[in-house]
Each structure stands twice: as C-alpha cells, then as structure tokens.
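Q: what sequence does this backbone want?
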C-alpha cells in the first residue's frame, strides 16, 4: 500500500466491514482474460465469503475456469465539501479488498449454511420458511476462501476526524457531510 498511514491494520475492523456492508463486488477473470466485476449480496463468516447465484451464467463459468477472485467492499463515511480551495474537498471512507479462491459448494449442509448466513444478514429478525427444494435445485452457493485481505481508510484530519470517529462510534447515519473553507 502506497500510503501506509491509510492501511487498516486492525483485523476486527475489516471483519466488521464484511459483516455489515450490504453489497460487495466480485472480480473474476472473464472468458477473454479481461477482468469482470459483479455487485452481489454476500455473507462473511470466519475467513470465508458466501454468496448465491444461478447454476449457470458468466460468474459461474468464470469461477469454473479460474477460481482466483478478488472481492471488494467500501463504506462511504463522509463527504467534505469545500467553499474555497477545491483541493480541500474530500471523500472519507473505509474499504476492504480480499483475494482468494472461489469454490462452488456441492455439500448440501454447507449450501444450507451459506444460505442461512445470507438470510441472517439480510433478514436478521427471521420470519421465513425453510428453503423450497425446487429453488435449492436451481441455486448455486459459492464460497470464497480468503487468502489475503487488506483494508484502507481515510477518516480525515483534526476536527473532522474527531467528528467522523464520534459518528462511527454512535452508529450515525452515513455518509456524514461537512463543509470547510
């Protein structure tokens, strides 16, 4: 990382982001060797990322051809507007990039486990029925085994950084907006 001061070194923050951010981006290697990125819902558990997909399609074909993947999430934290010098404007954030290998899960118990993780994340209050067998038959569950993970953040400086950290601690609605001259 070019700017070491922006690296998130606390693993708990990285995991927290993976557990709470709603949409991640999966990077695969396309059939022509070009990178392909797809946004998707996902769930994180103990160094693994789970998501579901149709049994056929570009994403599945890419993973079958080459299981190496990249996965990214980001959290927009604040927008700092400038009423003077435009170089004083800023976008404050946290992000995670995970590299690993994707695997289409065949084991029924692990497939159900991955789907339950997704439901627990997106509908934690419950209230849903068991998975219908016909839907399970047409659904793939994919697991990414994370091999390395990095995080980066820019939380601002001075008073703005203090306000950002306070907002994060209080679970304030994001993104925050600040204006400076």
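A:
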């Amino acid at each position: 990382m070019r700017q070491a001061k922006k690296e998130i070194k606390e693993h708990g923050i990285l995991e927290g982001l993976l557990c709470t951010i709603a949409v991640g981006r999966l990077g695969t290697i396309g059939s022509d060797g070009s990178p392909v990125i797809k946004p998707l819902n996902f769930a994180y558990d103990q160094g693994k990322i789970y998501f579901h997909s149709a049994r056929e399609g570009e994403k599945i074909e890419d993973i079958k051809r080459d299981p190496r993947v990249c996965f990214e999430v980001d959290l927009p934290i604040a927008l700092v507007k400038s009423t003077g010098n435009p170089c004083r404007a800023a976008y404050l954030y946290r992000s995670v990039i995970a590299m690993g290998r994707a695997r289409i899960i065949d084991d029924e118990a692990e497939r159900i486990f991955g789907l339950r993780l997704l439901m627990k994340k997106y509908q934690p209050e419950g209230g849903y029925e068991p998975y219908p067998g016909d839907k399970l038959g047409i659904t793939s569950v994919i697991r990414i085994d994370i091999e390395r993970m990095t995080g980066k953040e820019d939380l601002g400086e001075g008073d703005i950084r203090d306000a950002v950290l306070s907002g994060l601690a209080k679970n304030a609605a994001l993104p925050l907006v600040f204006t400076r001259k």
